[in-house]
Amino acid sequence: MRHAPIEAAARLDARLGDPRDPDTSFSYARCAELDDEDGFPTEICRQLDELGLPEQYVPTRHGGTLADHETAVQLMRMVARRDITVAVAHGKTYLGGVSVWIGGDAAQAEALAKLVRAGVPVSWGLTERDHGSDLLHGEAACSWWTRRGCGRRSTSTCPRSVRTASGARTSVASRSTAHRASWSAGPAPASRPS
């Protein structure tokens, strides 16, 4: 019996090469080296980008190939089978996008789709020191401005740089040359439900 999501994962797995071959960039040996070095899997994530995995994170209505979430899950399952760190490092973009696909307006979804499809990593702000994972009582919010100077306010997805309510800063280098976004966070809007 053929099952399209599993076949999609098998195709990606084949394109990545044999993970037992140490000369393969996404090999078990390379992932173990990165773990020993506490290194980020930049080259492996770039390879996944080049193979089109970010397209699978974007719904078809926004120009991607995400027609069903089962295919995205099977693809991530295959990546995680090789290395869980790579699955989290790359798959966070899927998690960051889902909140916008479900709760964002059309302009937000289109803007984020362009970023994701260009290979810009995004993430989902979830935990805070004083609130844990309580999404209704968090204090961090993100604002972003493009080079054109337009501003938007979001309380979920921040693709480039995040400053948390406690002042910690996390940066992710953008690989997109077509669109650069700069993000900073501050207290959540007063109109947010409590």
Low-pLDDT residue intervals, each spanning 5 or more residues: 144-194
Q: Kindly provide the name of the CATH class of the domain at 4-106.
A: Mainly Alpha
CATH architectural name of the domain at 4-106: Orthogonal Bundle
User: Largest beta sheet: what is the strand line-up?
Assistant: 2-1-5
Number of helices: 7
Order of helices and strands: HHHHHHHEEEEE
CATH topology of the domain at 4-106: Butyryl-Coa Dehydrogenase, subunit A, domain 1
Strand content: 5-15%
Q: Per the principal axes of the C-alpha atoms, what is the gross shape? A: globular
Number of strands: 5
Mean pLDDT score: 76
Percent in helix:
40-55%
Sheet of most strands: 3 strands, antiparallel
Q: Mind telling me the C-alpha Rg?
A: 18 Å
Given the helix and strand composition, which structural class is it? alpha+beta
Give an overview in words.
- The chain has 194 residues and is of the alpha+beta class.
- It has a domain of 103 residues: Butyryl-Coa Dehydrogenase, subunit A, domain 1.
- The protein is 42% helix and 11% strand.
- The strands form two sheets. Strands 2-1-5 form a three-stranded antiparallel β-sheet, with no helix packed on it. A two-stranded antiparallel ribbon has the order 3-4.
- The longest helix is centred in the middle third of the chain and has 20 residues.
- The termini are far apart.
